[in-house]
């Protein structure tokens, strides 16, 4: 409404956005979402109560959802169920979900907020592999870039990917080999009796991993896990910078921001944290 | 609108049905479905072309889909992607999908069309177990009911569940044991060199299994597989009747109707047959 000559305001004002949308489509989607929240099946009255609309109105939207195959009505009952199109939609969404893209906005925010190098890594066939890398305005000189493979035991990234997949035989074997090949001073940092098991436990307990100078001299790093819809760790989100140049502790600002962004990326990957303790951000006791 | 005093007409006339639905909701769902069909990500112009609407119109619906979390827009690109709500919806739909309910209407249709006993069976911990049973108007007296466990090798139902899970060690062991305990005349019906492997191959090739008098004296049965969203066999749909009383061949009327209904139940379970040859109805060559 204003005629003042302003540069394009990002984001668009709320009112304008709303006018460009379609109210009836949103109500239909809210009914669909509500049926999902109720476990995928519900009676008309339960569903109407859940979405806060009249049964008559919800019934009309359900007729459209049935027509499009997203919902079916159970034969001889008053129950509405999510249908085949809902499954097909979910499968298509899962297939295209991937952590690099889901982490894009988070990487940018972390870089701006912390002025540290930020990256996303996944388990490749050679180990924990950097797949996306963002440098701050004043780059930190490190020997790491997209494609770099990081150790499982001596990098924060590797520790995250290892800890949540500690029962994976391949990862375990890779970690055992790293341990056998490690210089004495690194091995001395781990538990003598159960070095890998205890390391994994401490990472799970903290909800993130922290290293100082173990992988790159003079560099500290913090890493947090990204989970997919099945609750599996699918990536690690990591920040690194000069040791002493930032608080690289599990309760520091960087770790806190990182865990928060990793949770946002997990949510975008379809991960629902409710009830999944093993993937929780900060459990008070180590996961058994 | 009519004032004529008629009993409630089932089903409702098409026109009335349409008026009770919500056009804008259906357009929104069509856009959502279209994005799924395009692999879960597409540009506005691709999507508009796919659903046959103008880009301006599709853009408004996308704004609503984004608002409700079903779709996200990739940062710095013109691509729209299926979002976290689409994954959550699919997961809820998959969790509640179950073959007994999905097969309900099919069982009724089969019973009416064929006048045979129809049932759904799944693999329980004791073997192939009947979980839903429908009798025709003139019941056939058979020693089988809900809860009955059928042999893997000598019932059509068991053969279907075995054939599509022939690499499952537990099922293989159960079948081996049945073979060891079988009387000579039953063993003689199977291949001497590879009895279980060849039996499975023939069932896969036909897309269904047929038995005559092997499990129940005087009874023939035909069974077809139900697949879930992951392409796994999750149930068998079976019809049975007196031997000689119906065409119990793999190309007979009963087998044809059964395969068709099993395909419908699979679709309701989220199974998409495209490209999944191993789960195809009637491949011309046995699956390797």
TrEMBL record, chains A, B:
Gene3D superfamilies: 3.30.450.40, Winged helix-like DNA-binding domain superfamily/Winged helix DNA-binding domain
Domain of life of the source: Bacteria
Positions of the UniProt region annotated as Disordered: 1-22
Keyword Ion transport: no
InterPro entries membership: GAF-like_dom_sf, HTH_MetabolicPath_Reg, Tscrpt_reg_IclR_C, Tscrpt_reg_IclR_N, WH-like_DNA-bd_sf, WH_DNA-bd_sf
This protein's UniProt keywords: DNA-binding, Transcription, Transcription regulation
Domain called HTH iclR-type: residue spans: 22-84
All copies of domain IclR-ED, residue ranges: 85-271
Entry protein name: IclR family transcriptional regulator
Organism of origin: Aquincola tertiaricarbonis
């Amino acid at each position: 409404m204003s005629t003042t000559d302003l540069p394009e305001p990002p984001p668009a004002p709320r009112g304008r956005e709303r006018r460009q949308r379609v109210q009836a489509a949103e109500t239909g989607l809210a009914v669909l979402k509500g049926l999902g929240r109720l476990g995928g099946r519900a009676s008309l009255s339960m569903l109407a109560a859940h979405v806060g609309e009249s049964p008559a109105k919800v019934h009309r939207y359900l007729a459209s959802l049935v027509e499009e195959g997203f919902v079916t009505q159970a034969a001889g009952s008053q129950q509405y169920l999510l249908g085949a199109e809902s499954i097909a939609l979910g499968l298509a969404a899962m297939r295209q979900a991937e952590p690099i893209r889901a982490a894009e906005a988070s990487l940018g925010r972390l870089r701006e907020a912390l002025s540290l190098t930020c990256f996303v890594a996944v388990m490749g066939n050679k180990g924990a592999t950097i797949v996306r890398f963002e440098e701050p305005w004043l780059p930190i000189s490190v020997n790491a870039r997209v494609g770099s493979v990081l150790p499982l035991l001596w990098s924060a990234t590797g520790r995250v990917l290892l800890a949540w997949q500690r029962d994976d035989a391949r990862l375990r074997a890779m970690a055992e080999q790293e341990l056998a090949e490690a210089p004495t001073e690194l091995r001395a940092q781990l538990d003598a009796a159960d070095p890998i098991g205890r390391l994994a436990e401490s990472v799970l307990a903290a909800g993130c991993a922290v290293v100082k100078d173990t992988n790159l001299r003079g560099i500290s790093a913090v890493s947090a896990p990204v989970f997919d819809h099945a609750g599996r760790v699918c990536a690690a989100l990591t920040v690194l910078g000069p040791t002493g140049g930032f608080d690289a502790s599990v309760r520091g600002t960087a770790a806190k921001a990182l865990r928060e962004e990793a949770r946002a990326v997990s949510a975008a990957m379809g991960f629902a944290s409710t009830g999944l303790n093993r993937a929780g951000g900060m459990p008070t006791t180590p996961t058994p």
